[in-house]
């Protein structure tokens, strides 16, 4: 009985890193309520989130440096697990991205569509796009599901 308890305890101990939350480093402008709403959404989904406010020109440069085209941008930019997460991407899609690990720049929800995380409630349809390393994008998920 003790051997089983020790083994179970050891397995639990070695599994702790797998349970550690991913950290999303977010860059936004000061006082943006929808950015704060998205950060809260990500935290509620189990992510740890840092947030740094930048001047608009510096934030835009960060987006372009990350490999995004102007039409793929939104109000805030996050980085997690080697990927960029632009705008109001649902946490479920970020988790899927981290599980699947595609060869891509990351995910974006261009603009600020109503009903996306941080943008209130609405049944307005929007798409989450996977941005390829060549700058092209494909639909990764459609909402509402």
The proportion of residues in beta strands is 25-35%
Query: How large, in whole angstroms, is the Cα Rg?
Result: 17 Å
The CATH class name reads: Alpha Beta
Q: Supply the helix-strand structural class.
A: alpha/beta
Average pLDDT figure: 89
Task: Tell me the helix content.
Answer: 25-40%
Named CATH topology: Glutaredoxin
Task: State the end-to-end CA separation.
Answer: 47 Å
Our count of helices gives 4
Q: In CATH terms, what is the architecture?
A: 3-Layer(aba) Sandwich
- The coarse overall form would be globular
Total strands: the figure is 7
Question: What does the main sheet amount to?
Answer: 7 strands, mixed
Instruction: List segments where confidence is low: pLDDT < 50 over at least 5 consecutive residues.
Output: 1-19
Q: Please indicate the count of domains.
A: 1
Oligomerization status of the protein chains: single chain
Placed side by side, the strands forming the largest sheet appear as 2-1-3-4-5-6-7
SSE topology string: HEHEHEEHEEE
């Amino acid at each position: 009985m003790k051997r089983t308890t020790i083994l179970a305890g050891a397995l639990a101990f070695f599994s702790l890193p797998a349970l550690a939350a991913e950290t999303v480093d977010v860059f936004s402008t000061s006082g943006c309520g929808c950015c704060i709403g998205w950060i809260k959404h990500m935290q509620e989904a189990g992510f740890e989130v840092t947030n740094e406010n930048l001047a608009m020109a510096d934030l835009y440069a960060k987006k372009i440096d990350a490999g995004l085209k102007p039409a793929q941008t939104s109000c805030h930019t996050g980085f997690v697990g080697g990927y960029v997460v632009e705008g109001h991407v649902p946490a479920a899609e970020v988790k899927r991205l981290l599980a699947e690990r595609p060869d891509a720049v990351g995910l974006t929800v261009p603009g600020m569509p109503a009903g996306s995380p941080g943008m209130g409630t609405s049944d307005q349809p929007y798409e989450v796009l996977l941005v390829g390393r060549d700058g092209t994008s494909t639909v990764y998920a459609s909402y509402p599901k």
